[in-house]
Amino acid sequence: MTATVARLPSRPSRPTISVGGSAQPELEAALIGYRLHSSLEDVSTAELEFGNWGGDDAGFRFYDREVIDFGEEVEISIDDAPLFTGRISAIGGHYPEAGPPTLSFCAEDSLQALRMTRRSRSFEDATLEDVARAVADAHGLTAQVEVQAAAAPLIAQVNQTDFAFLFDLARRFGASVTVDGDTLHIRSDEGTPAVELRWAGTLRAFDVTGDLAGQRSTITVGGWDVGNKSEASHTADASVIANDLGSDLGGSALLDEKITARNEVLAHCLPASQSEAREIAESAYRRMARDFVTGEGLCETDPLIHVGAKLELAGLGRLFDGEYRATSVTHLFDPDSGAITEFRCDRPGIGDAS
Question: What are the start and end residues of every segment in region (Disordered) (predicted)?
Answer without folding.
Answer: 1-21
